[in-house]
Amino acid sequence: MTDKAFATQNFCTLARCRLPVVQAPIGGVAGPSLASAVANAGGLGSMALTWRDAPGVRAALREVRATSTGAINANFVLDFPVDAQLDAALEEGVEVVSFFWGDARSHITRVKRAGACVIVVVGSVDEARRAVESEADVIVAQGAEAGGHVRGDTPLAELLPWVIMAADGRPVLAAGGIVSSEDAERVKQVGAAGVWVGTRFVASAEANAHPSYKAAVVAAGRDATILSELFDGGWPNAKMRTLVNSTVRVWEDAGRPQPGGRPGEGEIIGISGGRPLPRYDSDAPTSQTSGEVEAMALYAGTGAERIRDILGAGAIVSALAAPWT
Ligand SMILES: Cc1cc2nc3c(=O)[nH]c(=O)nc-3n(C[C@H](O)[C@H](O)[C@H](O)COP(=O)(O)O)c2cc1C
Predict the structure, then answer these.
(1) 258 and 197, same structural domain?
(2) Which InterPro entries does the UniProt record give (predicted)?
(3) What is the pLDDT of residue 8?
């Protein structure tokens, strides 16, 4: 078996899935239906659990379990307190835990003791080295093309080979701008064990994204996304990639002013699950959101320009897994 084939087999064994395709954590846009559809298709489904309380974590994971027999990736963003949610996820027996945006060291022993596989998402080679030192099982190299919050500045093609070298034999998944079999084939050739994909799953039938958000991803053309810190309500000082929408355009026309001096700051532009949503809030619009959906944080990677349709999650998994099947 080649080293590349071994890395893929190793990932699938560690993460307990059949195909090396991960539906990346995509906030509230991925609910239990998407995670279980991906798992049922042989991939690894993820649930972003940072912003739920412990009973909410348990309820969400039980809902995935009720409709799927596959493994679940419980995701935590370390810019926020996650201890109670992580404990709840481990008690529910998740097979995989992934960490983003911070130092995972203090959590990893606990996760491994519970028997789960640890994935750490990195945006630089230094971060990859730290993940290896802290004994992560799998590393995700997130290129600057990625949708949502973006950890580093380096494009995937440049970052991936260096992270694979730093990973010292651990499987590395490629993330950022991957939407098709051709994209997956390209990263496979470089040595990626599999793919970690967000935006392509935003435009899936099972995603909990607001229908207008899904339509905006499908309609995105060239240069449709921007990397900024604009949608900072609830998560300040963090870079994210979103579609260029009316909020972005008005802010750019005003000369990109700093927080406190931005057009329409504080204005309520919608409601999500009963919570009023101010302009520049970091929550993406879901099926529970109403109001000026077009003006909200429409997270999307550069690959959005090549997404032309809303597909079932199973079809997306099969297409992305094609190079490995
Ligand atoms: C709508 C959306 C929400 C996201 N939320 C999270 C999150 O909660 N936790 C996380 O680790 N990454 C999050 N990300 C980043 C993804 O996990 C992943 O790195 C990224 O989507 C990969 O790039 P792609 O969108 O081009 O496929 C989010 C991405 C999107 C598009």
Answers:
(1) no
(2) Aldolase_TIM, Dihydroorotate_DH_CS, NMO
(3) 93
